[in-house]
Amino acid sequence: MTAWEAVIGIECHVELRTASKMFCGCQNEFGGEPNTKVCPVCLGMPGALPVPNMRAIDHMIRAGIALGSEIPAFSKFDRKNYFYPDMPKDYQISQYDMPLTQGGVVRYWLEDGTMKECRLTRIHLEEDTGKSTHAGSTDGRIAGSAYSLVDFNRAGVPLMECVSEPDIRSAEEAVAYLEALKRTFVQLGVSDVKMEEGSLRCDANVSIRPIGASEYGTKTEIKNMNSFRSVYRAIESEIERQIAIVESGGRVTQETRGWDEARGVTHPMRSKEQAHDYRYFPDPDLVPMEFNAATMEILRSTLPELPTARFERYTKQFGINVKQATQLVDNAQLADYFDQCVAACGNAHQCVNFVLGDLSRLSNESGTPVYYSNARPEYVAEVIDMLEKKIINSKIAKELIERIWEAAGSPRAIVEREGLSQTSDPGAVEGFVNDVLAANEKVVAEYKAGKTNVMGFLVGQVMKTSRGKADPALAGELLRKKLDAS
Amino acid sequence: MSSETIDVRYVAQLARIELTDDEVERFGAQLGNLLDHVGRLAELDTASVPATAQVIESRNVLRDDVVRPSLDRETVLAQAPKRQGAFFRVPRIIAEAE
Q1: Contacts of B14 (CB under 8 A, 6+ apart)
Q2: Which of A64, A167, A276, B20 is the most exposed place for a label (fewest CB within 10 A)?
Q3: How many domains are there within chain B?
Q4: Alpha-carbon distance A409 to nearest alpha carbon in chain B (angstroms)
């Protein structure tokens, strides 16, 4: 039996985060009362002139630089002509042969930490279309509807289209790729990337071929995937469908298929008989863009550390596990906070435990983000430092984290003021041990009868008697010595 | 270039224009003349002229990302051939998704 591999390329549309639309001053905001964010430019009134939003251009170039794309020295806008009432102009301003970015690589990771790469073909800038609702049908589908209702609030919103090369080999990789793109765009501040609000929409081109083959099979284009989960399910389902066709001697038809979330299958979408002929031509209303090295350098200098680089720093340099590293990378401010803790104490492992453990728990309970809390990174570092030097034990450390969360103040000072430092003085700990042994004769008898797992209880009692100050390792050692000797 | 090379019906279909047989013939000839005229440019030696997409010299004319007032909705919808409530009502959208 042939083993198959999938060949997948992804096109995704991402709405850029700007205050105003791409070519006019209407507000760029999700939702709102229909047709209230429109003007002569985005409604395509004759004589209205579009002017590009510089923030959108910045976003594109920064995204391109971040993903290793080439930013050509010259770029322009073109008109993509089509009759479709979701664009009032009867054309969409887009980019045809001279996009703002060419090439690039998205580096991403799978759940087991494997690093992957997917090449980008290009990222180009265009304007989003209006939103149409299909009315007059009973089931809300276009097929049975008598007419459509259009809201142009979204028309003209800056939209970047990222086209990948067919480098993706599974549904899992497709989702991991999209997550990496999302992280990157969020970190750069170029988009909110909210799939539920439609600010990220994607289509997948899927084909299969025998593993090791170099030729591509016939591909289908999958649409209507509205969440990362539906991307995963749709691709899995389409791969299975194609394998079943080919293994039963059939041939995959090149077509566009829609994902049916409820039924968990893709179904063919009837396509127009005539191939699209968009008659692209340079938009005469817009002047070309030219970029020089200085512009590039200025925009490059605004780039933060990117999520994939951070992930690799955490996993490779700090040895943090994939799950914890991903958690940090997905919360840039928390990760910045974590970095400051590490810078102050040098112990990444303890830092990640406190930041994702106690500090995140306190944050969830109180609703205060960790980096807004009283627990400054240098205080956390002091706690970790005292813990490493065995000045305090882990129980006191946890208490101190709660104390510095409640009120700003040096934990070292608290320890000194309240005498919380761990007692490693054998004499003092021995005193606590003797007290515990005297008070727990029954348990001591059980231990001597062979029930050695009561040791944990006895150590706990020593900690309690010492009000948490005894060195638990030393307490255990002394207990064992006394019990085994007698 | 002549009208032989232009599929007038196809061009008319793209532009959503209905043409009679007579019009196809007449416009075909006219379009052919236009192309012949423009075709004279091909006689020039442009080897040393860089390609351009714009005859204006300006570059990088951009605007600040600032929100400006939008139009009043009633004014907007008054321009619509058909409206329904707050929406433009348009013929059923014939999509790929049909």
Answers
A1: A81, A277, A279
A2: B20
A3: 1
A4: 43
